[in-house]
Amino acid sequence: MRIAKYLLLAIAIVAALAGPLITQNSFLRDLWVLVAMWGAVATAWNLIGGYAGGLSLGHAAFFGIGAYTSSLLYLDLHLSPWLGAIAGGLVAVLSALVIGFITIRLRGPFFALATLAFAAILGIAATNLSALTHGAEGMTIPFAPALRNAIFSSKVDYYYVALALLLIYVALTWWISVSRFGYYLIAIRENEDAAQALGIDALRVKLGATLLSAFMTALVGSFYAQYRLFFEPSIFATDISVQIALFAIIGGLGTVWGPLIGAAILVPLTGELQSFLGSALPGIDAFVYGALLVLAILFVPNGFVSLIRPLFAGKRTPPATRQPVEAEAEAKT
Amino acid sequence: MSALLQLRNVEKRFGGLQAVKDVTLDVEPGEIVGLIGPNGAGKTTLFSCIAGFHRITKGSIVFDGREIGNRPAFEVCRAGVARTFQVVKPFARMTALQSVMVGSFLRHRDAASARRAALDVLARLRMEHLADVEAHSLTLVLKKRLEVARALATEPRLLLLDEVMAGLSPGEVPELLDVIRAINAGGVTVLFVEHIMAAVMNIAHRVVVLHGGELLADGTPAEVSRDPQVIAAYLGEEYAAGA
Ligand SMILES: Nc1ncnc2c1ncn2[C@@H]1O[C@H](COP(=O)(O)OP(=O)(O)OP(=O)(O)O)[C@@H](O)[C@H]1O
Ligand SMILES: [Mg+2]
Q: Three-class SS of residue B15?
């Protein structure tokens, strides 16, 4: 077990650092970038969706805000996208503050629907405010490779930028998960009343997680814009929000590594399914993808991270020494 | 004059139902006060009013010289009032230790000292051996005890316990009574709701009786158990005969 653990770690580190170098294939290199990128977004989503238990179906909003803000500042004011990304993060925080005040009191499905509507509204706005956003025609960024422009000729360079973001996000999540803020988020998810009774200002803590998550998501949105050099209002689409949530759910909600693992499984899967099946019968790839998701949720309900977690569970009490559970009616006495 | 908790003419209406009517009550620092009364008397509702879970429709609640009526629950807790829930509200997927740490984080910002404080509280509740057990797999009796541990971890000056002994076998009651006495000896004032009369009579310095939302009696356990109104409303003739 010990050896398996370190072997797995070593393989993961080498793969993460050298992964895209072992191939010249542009499609495969793109996959590495996308896995790191979506892994980072899903890790950001996980703070609110996994730890705090607020199922957001509107994270494409923050992603799109990041992309639009840095791109507009770059194209119209020649501001370096490195700074534009920070600006995008701040705009996302402001919008999260506004939407947070409105939605955060909502529980369960109402919160999910409100976030979904928020992203949909931004999509409509981006389409119609064409003087600012170029409307449905989309945003095109000229290919001018330079560090200052955050545009690179090699996908490998993009990969290391995405990897840096990803690692920072994973490290931040780990740090939160062992600190007061993380305990509070989980307590709110598990029982908001009980959390309040222990002195936790639940609205404030949830809002904090939402703002942080929005900022992190927007940074990756800016990265996406500089990587693809083209995007449209469809960047706010619901299927992007749903994908982000799915990565975290399939990988493991409220876990440090789950969202990345989910992205590492699902991003290549969508790509492969599309290229192998997409031409056979239109839509069949989406059908197979959906069926695989259902199977995953049925058979790995705690996410794929739960399959490797036993390797890393050092100090946890083995189930055998746990107290026997008596079947007992929890009726009010 | 310097009561720790002062309720003045507290009223709570749910629409047409008056669950708490004009309750005036003082709890002195260091006391253990038992709150008894038949089902539906308004005991839990009164707790929820004090703890900030219900808005009161009339009256005032002063804790330690500060008005806490209609303040949000987290503020009341920070002021020094902690409660347990009659219908337990566990953090199902947290271990007992993690659950208690959520409480101890209120006064200990860093994880290491919150953890030490939580372990200490678990030891006081005599459940340190359950530290790594997830809350959902505890028995109801232990979930109730975990509620006490969590609340105590916020280092309150007033602890509100709502039927934490329910479900205990008679043999197990004295242990929990000892635990509560020790908590009280550590400087925590206790207001508790309980139906097990032997426990109430054993531990309470003072007993107040709620009936139909109204305060029916307030006195020492001996006085209250002799009160004809209380016997008629709650204790029943057999209890009076046996006492
Ligand atoms: N949230 C609520 N909305 C409406 N009515 C309520 C609510 N909570 C309690 N009540 C009503 O208020 C009255 C008092 O209930 P409460 O739970 O306070 O009684 P209790 O003294 O704690 O009883 P028990 O001994 O059964 O726990 C009951 O008639 C109950 O139905
Ligand atoms: Mg009750």
A: coil
Q: Which of A124-133, B81-90, B99-108, B136-145 has the lowest mean pLDDT?
A: A124-133
Task: For residue range B51-65, list pLDDT tens digits in order.
Answer: 999 999 999 999 999
Could you read off the pLDDT of A245-267 as tens digits, one per residue? 999 999 999 999 999 999 999 99
Q: How many CA atoms are closer than 13 Å to the CA of A294, on its beta-carbon side?
A: 6
Tokens (6 digits) for A52: 């705090």
Whole-angstrom Cα distance, residue B218 to residue B37?
12
Chain A residues in contact with B101 (beta carbon < 8 A): 183
Determine if residue B28 is left, alpha or beta; phi over 0 gives left, psi from -120 to 50 gives alpha, anything else beta. beta
pLDDT for residue B186 is more than 60 = yes
Backbone angles phi, psi at B131, to 5 degrees: -50, -40
Q: How far is CA B83 from CA A10, A222, B149, B152, B174, in A?
A: 48, 47, 10, 9, 21
Using N-to-C axis directions, what is the helix angle for A81-103 and A202-228, rounded to 10°?
140
3-state secondary structure of B31: coil
Integer CA distances (angstroms), A270 to A46, A119, A230, A267, A284, in order: 21, 23, 21, 5, 12
Nearest CA of chain A to the CA of B58: how many Å?
22
Section B185-213 average pLDDT: 94
- Other C-beta atoms lying within 10 Å of the C-beta of residue A190: 21
Contact B211/A at CB under 8 A: no
CA-to-CA distance for A3 and B54, rounded, in angstroms?
55
Report the residue from B87, B98, B130 with minimal CB separation from A332: B87
Does B83 contact A at CB distance below 8 Å? yes
Helix, strand, coil in percent for chain B, rounding step 5: 40, 25, 35
Per-residue pLDDT band for B225 (boundaries 50, 70, 90) equals: confident
Buried b (16+ CB within 10 A) or exposed e, B114-134: bbebbbebbebbebeebbebb
Per domain, the residue ranges of chain B are 5-89+154-242
Q: Measure the CA–CA gap between B100 and B91, rounded to whole angstroms.
A: 10
Q: Give the pLDDT score at A288.
A: 79
Question: If 0-12 CB within 10 Å is exposed, 13-18 middle and 19+ buried, where does residue B109 land?
Answer: exposed
φ/ψ of A270, rounded to 5, equals -60, -45
Q: Class of B5-89+154-242 per CATH?
A: alpha beta
B214: Cβ–Cβ under 8 A, 6 or more apart, which residues?
B21, B22, B23
pLDDT at B1 over 70: no
CA B178, B180, B184: angle at the middle one, nearest 5? 115
More confident residue, A287 or A200: A200
- Window B:19-38, CB contacts with A under 8 Å: none
Domains present along chain A, CATH in parentheses: 2-332 (1.10.3470)
pTM listed for this prediction: 0.90
Cβ contact A201:A95 at 8 Å: no
**For residues A54 and A245, is the Cβ–Cβ distance under 8 A?**
no
Q: Is A215 exposed, middle or buried (0-12, 13-18, 19+ CB in 10 A)?
A: buried
- Residue B48 CA: nearest ligand 1 atom is 18
| Alpha-helix runs per DSSP H in A129-179 | 130-133, 155-177
